[in-house]
Design a protein that fits this description.
Elements: H1 5-9, E1 14-15, H2 29-42, E2 46-49, H3 61-75, E3 81-85, H4 89-101, E4 106-109, H5 119-131, E5 136-141, H6 149-157, E6 161-166, H7 171-184, E7 191-194, H8 203-208, E8 213-216, H9 223-235, H10 238-256, H11 262-273, H12 290-308
Length: 310
């Protein structure tokens, strides 16, 4: 069982690597290892393997375990490795155990598959997942998994549920959740993450309610830009934050919104254009158009040029 120290180690920019596939569509573990290694060497504070950006939905259990084990081996204890877990309760527990066997430090619990459960059902689901593993669990709020403040208080009472990642973007709800947990469980350290796609765009808003941890998709293909933004956000250099939002992140979000699944496929395209062939996305996702890939390349150059202006 991992130590509660995982929560203390999640301090910095969080790296969500893509999963590399070869020309035949199978796993390319060598490319995946190179991607993970480059991210850690660039300054990632944690590796979240086989999560949304890593196409968790497209991996078999055997592929999932192999990728998590490769990430753990490549990281070699330098930073925590957190793995995705999802689908229905039984499968989520199975993935949790595979991640534990592979040496992961924690889990990011994806929403349940297909159904839209009520609050009691979700509480039972995540409590059962947490009970089925010795790993610490971060619950991911998005899509069909949206929690009331009262439910989050109950989740926070589960010993190895250590945080909530918000992919919904309802700041009113998030403020009420944070307030409820703080009031009902005084003194308990419970982590909150901005988990929106291109989280940097809402970084100032989340910082305003005390949420500084976030997942950076940009880090996967341009750690220079992502780290510069993170430093500016966490040190109060709002001039740099706003310059990068105006000149890079807002145009990037506009581009991301041009196609379904671009939150993943554009990231993969970015990794490829920076020199590492991680292959294409698996169905049901599809590749971005050539015009949009060219626009992404121009945006990356524009973002790097902004760093030179600082």
């Amino acid at each position: 069982m991992t130590s509660p120290a995982l929560a203390e180690r999640l301090d910095g920019l969080l790296f969500f690597p893509v999963t590399a596939f070869g020309p035949d569509g199978g796993l390319d573990l060598d490319a995946f290892r190179a991607h993970v290694r480059a991210g850690v060497e660039a300054g990632a504070a944690a590796v979240f393997a086989c999560c949304g950006t890593g196409e968790f939905h497209a991996l078999s259990p055997e592929e999932f375990r192999a990728c998590v084990a490769a990430a753990v081996d490549e990281v070699a204890g330098r930073v925590p490795v957190v793995a995705g877990a999802g689908y229905g309760t039984a499968l989520a527990v199975q993935y949790a155990r595979l991640a534990e066997e592979a040496g992961a430090d924690g889990l990011l619990a994806m929403p349940p598959y297909l159904v839209v459960p009520g609050q009691e059902g979700m509480l039972r689901h995540y409590a059962a997942l947490a009970a089925g593993t010795g790993l610490d669990v971060i619950v991911y709020q998005r899509d069909n998994a949206v929690f009331t403040p009262e439910t989050v208080v109950e989740l926070a009472k589960v010993p190895n549920i250590i945080g909530l990642k918000d992919g919904l973007g309802d700041l009113d709800l998030m403020q009420r959740i944070i307030s409820a947990v703080r009031t009902e469980l005084p003194g308990q350290d419970f982590l909150y993450f901005n988990g929106l796609p291109t989280a940097e765009l809402t970084g100032l808003a989340y910082r305003g309610i005390g949420v500084l941890l976030y997942s950076s998709a940009v880090f996967a293909f341009s750690p220079e830009i992502a780290l510069a933004f993170h430093k500016a956000l966490t040190t109060g250099d709002d001039a740099t934050v706003n310059k990068l939002i105006d000149g890079f992140y807002r145009p990037l979000v506009n581009l991301r919104n041009q196609g379904r699944g671009y939150a993943v496929s554009l990231v993969k395209a970015g990794v490829r254009m920076r020199g590492l062939d991680v292959g294409e996305v698996r169905p049901p996702l599809s590749e971005p158009s050539a015009a949009h890939v060219k626009e992404l390349a121009d945006l990356i150059e524009q973002g790097l040029a902004l760093l030179g202006d600082r």
